[in-house]
Amino acid sequence: MRSRLRLPGLLAAAALAAGTAQAACSPLAWDWQAGAVHSRWQEHTEAGRRLVHERGTLAMLAVQTAAVCGGLRWETQLGLAEGRRGYEGESSGGQFITTHSRIRRLQGQVAVLLPVPAWGPGWQAGAALGHLRQWRDIASAGPVLGYPERFDQWQASALVDHRRALQPGLGLQARLALGGGPAGHLLLHLPTADAARLRLGASGLVQLDVTLLGGGGAAPAGWHAGWRWRHQRTAVGTSATLRRGALVVGAAAQPAFRQTDLGLQAGWRW
Q1: 227: nearest Cα among 201, 246, 209, 203
Q2: What is the pLDDT of residues 212-245, one digit of tens each?
Q3: What would the mean pLDDT of 173-199 be, rounded to a whole number?
Q4: Is 18 exposed, middle or buried (0-12, 13-18, 19+ CB in 10 A)?
Q5: ∠ CA(93), CA(98), CA(101), 5° rounding?
Q6: 77 and 113 in contact (C-beta within 8 Å)?
Q7: For the chain, is the Cβ count within 10 Å smaller at the N or the C terminus?
Q8: CA distance 151 to 74
Q9: How far apart are CA 22 and CA 16, in angstroms?
Q10: What fold, for 2-269?
Q11: What are the residue ranges spanned by the domains of the chain?
């Protein structure tokens, strides 16, 4: 677990160090949340033909910290998700199978936001930098052997955030993120070849969060509940040679894929 947490931890430390170096910061605010995510995964050929369709539910848990330093709001977030998706589609050998995959995700992000008075009260704009590590273990289906793989992707996004009071003791927050990232990497463990490191294509993402805030939009503590929609597209990767020892046994490339999540979550901030 220490190696899994190293990258998000470095992101968080760098963000908070940068903020405190600029000016004195407000007390650190904490936010814990848990929920469930309906996750869909689709792989396509370059011509658009669908190869694989997965869908299922993941349980998620996340913690966020925030502090205001010199007028800037710095946020760090670490999220974990795990669950199972049903799998329908072609295997790496071209056979149609029905099985399932086990999914685990570790996602870390640092964001900074600045108030935008020209837009009106409660508006902020900013940017975020994050890293997504995702494990996917496809189960065997009869004579077709399953295999595990691990995806690593960096992504940056522009943020627009708005908070407002709906009534005494109840507020609303909405946040939109638009961005993407450069080519990531896939660590592939096929049963017929040695482990291989494949290059993924570039990615693009859009995410919308809508949250009800107990205690009002500006209250420092209280409950919150809301939903998140996130859609990510990753282009087809480059082909890599597969080996078994000194013998070349083939080549592989990760097809283009789309991942869409719709989640409900609730938590407490203080």
Answers
A1: 209
A2: 999 866 667 899 999 999 999 999 999 999 999 9
A3: 97
A4: middle
A5: 85
A6: no
A7: N
A8: 27
A9: 10
A10: Lipocalin (2.40.128)
A11: 2-269
